[in-house]
Design brief:
- The chain has seven helices and twelve strands.
- The chain is of the alpha/beta class.
- It has one domain.
- Strand 11 and strand 12 form a beta hairpin.
- It starts with a strand and ends in a 16-residue tail after the last helix.
- The structure holds iron/sulfur cluster.
Length: 269
């Protein structure tokens, strides 16, 4: 189970991975301008209470997937972000997970009591190609965040992150790969995914192949895969990896170490 909390909507494109942004594609169907960032009616969802005075969103509702129709660090949301952080602090009993392409804006309006990071906040940085990995990861991996993941989605080429995971591997919860969906989807090559998996195995970092995308190359063959089958086909590859030591900790020692269920999630990023 999970909960979605889209507290603001709209975004501006910042890099190659944004070209076929899901938010833009969906808004276009309704003639809506996705570049205008607006607060949504769900802004205060985590702190809403029912008639009994109890929070409507319960811990058993699962991970709160946050800000999936925008970027949490978008400059047009700077003022609102203060309240967003405050709600996450108030709901320490919930786990919040979001994805960003703007790690360089992390410090803007960060709460004073952030310290080494709220225990219930998991942030994932998108690096769709080598250029963005080299640009974003040196910033992202130095940030005080307790739960960090890296996602190559849409994966647009081979990406070497060895130097990063060699240094920061123990602080990375997961590296995830996935292709692109939609009619204009760019190709994802299985060789790139496999190469990332091998890097993760070498440095003992958890790895997850999330979905193939619509145009998936394996060997010399290109497969056109319907949306409904993209996660299934990725799972069939059976290349996910969890270092035994982390598995043991997750199972027996460290209940705070929680991996969001990315298997069920359709990221717009
Ligand atoms: S892909 Fe993400 S960062 Fe890019 S425009 Fe869409 S929501 Fe914004």
């Amino acid at each position: 189970m999970s909960t979605t909390w889209n507290l603001w909507h709209g975004c501006t494109k910042v890099s190659a991975g944004c070209r076929n942004c899901y938010v833009y594609r969906r808004d276009a169907e309704f003639g809506k301008d996705s570049s205008i960032v607006t607060k949504t009616k769900a802004f205060d969802l985590p702190i809403r209470k029912d008639r009994k005075g109890e929070y409507k969103v319960k811990p058993e509702d699962g991970v709160v997937y946050t800000c999936f129709t925008s970027d949490f660090f978008h400059p047009d949301a700077d003022e609102w972000r203060k309240d967003a952080w405050a709600m996450m602090r108030t709901r320490a009993d919930l786990d919040f997970f979001f994805v960003t392409k703007r790690p360089e804006r992390f410090h803007v309006n960060l709460p004073e009591d952030w310290g080494e990071g709220y225990k219930n906040v998991h942030i994932c940085c998108t690096c769709e190609n080598q250029y963005m990995a080299d640009k974003r990861l040196p910033i992202f991996l130095e940030l005080p965040i307790r739960h960090k993941s890296i996602i190559h989605e849409p994966m647009l080429g081979p990406i070497i992150i060895e130097r990063f995971i060699e240094k920061y591997g123990k602080e990375i919860d997961q590296v995830v790969c996935g292709g692109e969906s939609g009619e204009e989807a760019r190709l994802c090559d299985y060789a790139w995914v496999m190469d990332t998996m091998c890097q993760c195995v070498k440095y003992e970092v958890p790895f997850h192949f999330k979905q193939t995308g619509a145009n998936f190359k394996r060997g010399e063959q290109v497969y056109h895969i319907p949306r409904k089958d993209q996660q299934i086909q990725a799972a069939k590859a059976k290349i996910d990896y969890m270092p035994p030591e982390r598995l043991r900790k997750e199972l027996y020692e460290n209940e705070e170490q929680r991996y969001p269920d990315l298997y069920q999630l359709s990221l717009p990023l």
